[in-house]
Amino acid sequence: MSSRLVAIKTLEEQQRSKEPFDRVFTKIMAKHPLSGQDRQLAMAISLGVIRQRNELDFVIAAFATTPIKKMRLEVLTALRVGVMQLLFMDRIPPSAAVNETIIGLGKQPSWIKGFLNGILREISRNIDKARNILTTLSKQKKTNHPGWLVDHYIKQFGKETAFAICNAGNKLPSLTLRINPQLCPMETFTAALQTENIDYKPGTFSPQALTILSTVTVEDLPGFKDGWFHVQDEAAQLVSLFFTPTEDGIYLDACAGLGGKTILLDQVLPDKAIIHAVEPFTERQNLFKDNLKRCQCRQIPLFSETIADYTSHCEIQYDGILIDAPCSGLGVIRRHPDIRWNRTLKDLDQCSTNQKALLHEAAPLVKEGGFLVYVTCSTSVIENEQVIDAFLKRHTEFCLETPPYPENIASFFTKGYLQTLPHQGLDGFFAAKLRKIRTTGERGEL
Fold first, then answer.
1. How far is CA 71 from CA 57, 78, 296, in A?
2. Which of 2, 148, 161, 293 is most buried per CB count within 10 Å?
3. Residue 342: CB atoms within 10 Å
4. Above 90 in pLDDT, residue 244?
5. pTM, 2 dp
6. Contacts of the segment 246-250: beta carbons below 8 A, 24+ positions apart
7. Residue 126 lies in a domain
8. Are residues 255 and 124 in the same domain?
9. What integer is the mean pLDDT of 312-332?
């Protein structure tokens, strides 16, 4: 397969299945591997189409006589791939953008290739006209986000912030690390980067954060095999504030996933503290174990079940529980741009229902005086404030507690919980600390 065909097949399959882009791309690469440069081109075209989809469709609609809604998906996808190269990838000659896209589509009826050829060549001959068309787009269309999501953000944040959040989601993400000071002092790590001529900048909000500026794979960074760091955005690193200062005790990561937050707990909790983890999915369990082993974490028992099943038999009362709740992922669109096209408002409501259930199921495991920390990588009030409000209404034995925080992040805590947004240079992230002030309380409907 050529780079263009891989891009077309990936985008087509991703739109049909709604599977995460990374997973679809990996599957296609396993069947049709490309060399490093060709793979990078296929990835760049694919992600570019996802990030610029509204603008691409607007240009296609202006040049095509057939309405977009009536085009076959493979035809529309090929047009998007071609126009992406013509308008947004200046290093690719227009002739190559057109010819390679049509050739890359493989065996197709002659009328399809003729249709593609006609539109792409017309755009190629009228690049200035195509670019001028983009200037007529409204600010909302230029965000390249679905209308329902932009409207949701406008209602929640106002127009200016809503557009800023969406535009930030179109930018390339940074590679941010959390350095483990117990294994490698920051000075030692930065010296190793300098030796390798790897550019970096220190974190802005987390003292253990460092952003890599050079193009390099994570595995090739110094100290990777020795666990000197793990990949984690600064927003997620701020979860450490919710667990410090903390005394010795027993803690639970109730939604452990791949272990990123578990590793953070291992680094910030006292050495004598005991940590448990719950993760029901086998694939994640294996990666969890690999990640904790690489980062040289303490022994952390992993329970292979849901938090609901675990609660049904657990006799432990925990000092603190972290619920890194499965969510829409709207706060990490810059890292996973396909999320914007895979979600609906109905999905947010379903996430909210599941999140309320998670908190309710974990509540009995918290001892009196202990706490829950609820976090999401979402920017929606439906998954954040509304979930917390519903929980506190149902569980009057808990109250919202704001952790101590440094002055430079005071703007993230204006309502008592942590909320970061993508246009602030961070992932969109929410966290709230819920203190159990007594053993029992009134319980209403979920």
1. 12, 11, 53
2. 2
3. 18
4. no
5. 0.93
6. 246/270, 246/273, 246/319, 246/320, 247/319, 248/272, 248/273, 249/273, 249/274, 249/318, 249/319, 249/320, 249/370, 250/274, 250/275, 250/276, 250/316, 250/318, 250/319
7. yes
8. no
9. 97
